Structures are given as C-alpha cells and as structure tokens.
Amino acid sequence: MVSISDFIKVPKIDSCKHLSSGMRYDSFVRWAGFIIPNFQERLLEDVGGAEDLEFRKEIFSYINLRAGTPHDVFLLFCHSISESVTENVKVLNGTVNVDLLSNLNNPSDFIDAIKNSCEKYADKITVRPYLGLNSDIEKNINLATMLLESGIFAGIELYGTAFAEKPEKFLTIFKTARKLNIESRIGSLGLRNFADRASILEIVQNLQPNVILNPNIVVKKDNLLIFRDGKILPEVINFLKSNNIRTEFSPAPFLSKQNSDEKIRVIREFAEQGLDFKLCSEDMLFLNKSLSEFAADLCNAGIFSKEEIVKIISN
Q: What percentage of the chain reaches a pLDDT higher than 90?
C-alpha cells in the first residue's frame, strides 16, 4: 500500500482542473460565505449520472450568482490554484468557465481576473488557462470565440452534450483554436448516448480535438465497439494514434457505480498500448480527490506501480 504523502512531494503536472470547482468544500465555503445544506450527502457515487449532473448545475448556479465582481472571480480562481500549489503541482491546465463573465461588466474584467490569479502564484506554479464552454448554452459560443482571440488561453474545453448532438455549431470555435495553435478538449459525457462507434468517430473527425477527457466513461457500451473485456479495440487504437489524440483521466470512474473496476483498468490498457494519456483532478469540489490521491488510488488498486505512476504524473 502507498500513501498520499508518497506523491505530494513529487513535482506534478495536472492536465485538467476546473478552477471554478477545483477546491475542497471548506475552501469553497470560505470563498462563497455560505454553506450548502447537506452538501456531502448529496455527492453521488454515480458520477455523470442525471442526479449528479443536476446537482452540479445547481452548484454552478450558486457560483455564477456569487461571482459578481472581478475580485470575486479572482479569489475563486486563487482558491483552486493555491490548493494545487500545496500538493506540489508545477504545471496546471486550469479551465475557467465563460459563464462567469455574465455578472461582470465586460470581457476585460474576466481576462484580468484570470491573468491576476495566474500571476499571483507564478513563482510557484505555471497555470495554463483553458476557456471552458458549456456547449448546451448556445448564446456563449460567439463570446467564447471572441475571448480566445485575447491570446491568454492555452486551449478550449467543451462539455455538455450539444457539441456532440450539433457538432456543426462548434466548427468555427475549433477552427479558431487551430488557427491560434492552442489545444481543444472535449468531455466524453457528451458522447455516451450514441448508438454506434461510427457516429462518435465522425464527430471527433469533424471537430478534430486534441484531447478527449474520460473516454472510459463508455465502458460496457457494447454497441459502441470501443472497449471489449477491458481492451481497446485495434480500430480505436489506430484512430487515436493517427489523429494524435491525447486522452485524460480523472478520478470520476472510481466513484461511478456501474462497471467502476473495468473503467479504472482501462486506464492501464492505454499505457500498455502506448497511447498518449495524462491524469488530472478535474473537479475537486465534486470528486474530492487531489492528483496525489488519484495516483495513490491507482497504485493501491493494482493498476500501476509506484514507479510507473510517478513517471506518469511528473511528465
């Protein structure tokens, strides 16, 4: 058995952390100034399920209402960044949601809050801001495209389901990302309701993302023909390699009720096949796992050795 302390001292790269929800609940309460009744009891094991997503939507509505000034947004990001600093993360891909701009006076306030929070910790950690876009809110697409032109973002992250249901609406923002030579990332939750693999691969080919988050979310979807008996099918391996797609995994599968063991072990398969992959904390507020805790979990579950996981989280 390994402990969390075995990994806290390791200089790490966190490939994806949402800065709106990248802190523990206690830190969130200090920022918000209020408690959320029965918060711990409402955290569900079925991560990504309908109730979980509805709960997250509720919490994000609180966050958006509370973030009324640029200083509020600045402090929100600082809480998330500082928690990464305390566990010796040296490079952080931090997603900032475009929704937070709704209560601010203008886009420059949002940009300044991002810059100032990153600069505050610049001597301890390199934060690479990603612009997060809930694809289910169409009114923000043009705004997000404009914000990318500011030049401060290292990438764009799309979540929700609309980017998969109506990929044509998001072609422009992905083209903008490629023009600016920045990364594009999509979450797999938007893909899991599709009936066949061909439909998913067509969406990915059209959007051309650099990164797919949590592809193991679709384990046991036999109709998709992506994984079988914990193995990635050869066609999928070839697709990922030929399209230079990196995959990123968060602690979410550990907390999922259905097929959690297989979802976790699929991560090992990515390593065995020589596929490009990274680990991330994603949403500490909801998943309650730091990158060091995630690394310890993977070791203690027998997925990786301590030496293997140190190499993974430090590169």
A: 77
How many Cβ atoms are within 10 Å of 27's Cβ, its own excluded?
18
Residue 231: Cβ within 10 Å count: 14
Return the closest-CA partner of residue 89 out of 6, 26, 3, 8. Answer: 8
What's the Cα-to-Cα distance from 133 to each of 99, 158, 162, 174, 298, rounded to whole Å?
A: 8, 5, 11, 12, 30
Sheet containing 126-134: order of strands: 12-18, 89-97, 126-134, 155-159, 183-187, 211-213, 246-249, 277-279
- Per-residue CA distances from 292 to 121, 223, 246, 280, 310 (Å): 20, 35, 21, 10, 10
Q: Which of 295, 289, 291 is nearest to 307 (CA)?
A: 295
pLDDT at 45: 66
Higher per-residue pLDDT: 37 or 153: 153
Describe the crossing of helices 141-148 and 171-179 by its angle, rounded to 10 degrees: 0
User: What's the rounded Cα separation, in Å, for the pair 251 and 264?
Assistant: 9
CA angle 307, 3, 26 (to 5 degrees): 125
Whole-Å CA distances, 98 to 109, 138, 154: 12, 12, 14
Where does residue 128 fall: left (phi above 0), alpha (psi -120 to 50 degrees), or beta otherwise?
A: beta
Single out the residue of 265, 243, 268 nearest to residue 254, CA to CA: 265
Residue 177: half-sphere exposure toward Cβ, Cα within 13 Å: 26
Q: How do residues 231-267 score in pLDDT, each as one tens digit?
A: 999 999 999 999 999 999 999 877 777 777 888 899 9
Question: 267 φ, ψ to 5°?
Answer: -60, -40
Q: 116 to each of 19, 87, 209, how far by Cα in Å? A: 14, 21, 28
Q: Using an 8 Å Cβ cutoff, are 18 and 132 in contact?
A: yes
